[in-house]
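Next up, sample data:
>
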Amino acid sequence: MGLDQAVSARPGLVAGIGFRRHAQAAEIASLIRRALEEAEAGPADLAAIATAGDRAGEPAIREAAALFGLVPEGLSPEALAACDPQVRTRSARIEALRGVGSLCEAAALAAAGPAGRLALARIATGSVTCALAFRAETRERPEA
């Protein structure tokens, strides 16, 4: 699934991340890179990395975010739940634990803002999930 052409012109993608406690920073960073590649974007297009508020301080995500020059944004359960109607992927396990079908998709959407939309639905490795969302301003083509 590729991005709108306007996205490659300026930053504005948010990576939403879900991860198990034993996940390593390298696995998180590698999946973010893979997501960007699948979305035909690059690290310069990444504006934020977001996850659940209770996980944003974990060393693995902090180290992974630092590789992109970012600090992870932690989101409240209410902010995540507000985005649940927009998530495309449903996990019964995550729904039972977090009240959303996909933590990474909800985190990407919540951090992208009220007009954000998914650019890439959830992809996964053994311990990490990642989704990308456009920030609203990213979807607009700059005036020429």
User: Anything to note?
Assistant: Residues 1-10, 138-144 have pLDDT under 50 and may be disordered. The chain has one domain: 5-139. Strands lie at 13-19, 46-52, 73-75, 117-124, 128-134. The longest helix spans residues 25-38.
